[in-house]
Amino acid sequence: MEKNGNVEHLQYENGNCDAVTTNCSTQTTQFDGLTGLHQPGCDTADAFGSLSRKCFKNLVGSCFGFKSTPRQGLGISSTDKDAWYYNMHHKYRGKAIIFNHENFQIRDLKSRAGTGLDCINLEASLKNLGFDVTPYVDLTLDELDKKLDYWAKEDYTNYDCFLMAVLSHGEQGIIYAKDGAYKPEDNLWGRFTGDKCVSLASKPKLFFIQACQGDRLDGGVQLRTQVDGSSTFKIPIYADFLIAYSTIPGFYSWRNTQKGSWFMQALCDAFDRYGYQLDLLTILTFVNRQVAIDYESNVPGTVQMHQQKQIPCITSMLTRLVKFEKKN
Predict the structure, then answer these.
(1) Integer CA distances (angstroms), 109 to 47, 64, 171, in order
(2) Is 2 a domain residue?
(3) Taking Cα atoms as reference points, which of 9, 1, 5, 77 lies closest to residue 256?
(4) Whole domain around residue 136: which residue ranges?
(5) What is the tens place of the pLDDT at every residue in 179-194?
(6) Helix 262-274 / helix 280-294 crossing angle, nearest 10 deg
(7) Measured between alpha carbons, how far is 85 from 280 in angstroms, rounded to an integer?
(8) CATH code of the domain covering residue 264
(9) 240 and 318 in contact (C-beta within 8 Å)?
């Protein structure tokens, strides 16, 4: 949608999301049944009561798109079983992959002005933290699949962790590549679970998603201030993941056409200021606060889009604290 005045192009029709504005006040903006169930002392699953055994078997493992297959052999944990912090003393910090989508071949999906700056700033911030960064721009679904397959098969034995960022349009439960939509749980983190990418088992796997998750708006609320060694152990295949979305399910994500998305601006700022001082979840709490308090949409020509708010959404399956330390 084209608008006169301060709005360059509001993208909110037909699920075309990543909400948008341009000249800001605080910041300028854009939208971007089971055997043994009754045996005493046994553990059981909280399955749907009416599900048959067959249905349940089909469901298990499908929440994230990839079913877990028991793996022969033993993975190696580079972190002591009872450690509070992940081992960040490998030879290399980690691989960071950025999938940046600005232009699309899909009807009604407009270009994402400002995402180029997001990509540049994020790459710089991650390099400052010691990451080896590889950015990709405007990949098709087929190209994206090939790149993901490549990186999922890499050997990360000498790396502290793995990081992936995706900057694109989205709706609830999907993200857009250049020529089509995909489910992130199927295509992104599902490939890097501990049973599939063994060299990343017990290591942090960090995902940052800048994309809308729906078309709902958040008008906010006014407040006033009141003043070990040889032992072995098993871990879930989805342990040690962190997935940070720019917004909560069902809501718009905002992006400034000149300064980039609110979430990426705040994330890069926090990495630059606190990357070596604080643990990652504390850093992301600062990001949440900055996005929630310091940003507000400036779309005076469209009342329903004006003075709207946003809050990022962090899902952590981390089992320890992530604290980046400088390499020698």
Answers:
(1) 39, 26, 12
(2) no
(3) 9
(4) 95-218+234-317
(5) 999 999 889 999 999 8
(6) 140
(7) 11
(8) 3.40.50.1460
(9) yes
In the chain, the number of structural domains is 1
Q: Is residue 186 part of a domain?
A: yes
Catalytic residue (choose from 17, 24, 101, 169): 169
Across the chain, how many H-helices and E-strands are there? 6, 13
Residue 58: the pLDDT is 41
pLDDT tier for residue 60 given thresholds of 50, 70 and 90: very low
pTM for the model = 0.80
Q: Which long-range contacts (CB under 8 A, 24 or more apart) does 2-5 make?
A: 3/301, 3/302, 4/301, 5/300, 5/301
Q: How far is CA 78 from the centre of its chain?
A: 24
63 is catalytic: no
The tens digit of pLDDT for each residue in 210-246 reads: 999 888 877 877 766 555 455 666 778 888 999 999 9
277 Cβ neighbours under 8 A, 6+ residues apart = none
Task: Indicate which residue of 101, 212, 268, 306 is catalytic.
Answer: 212
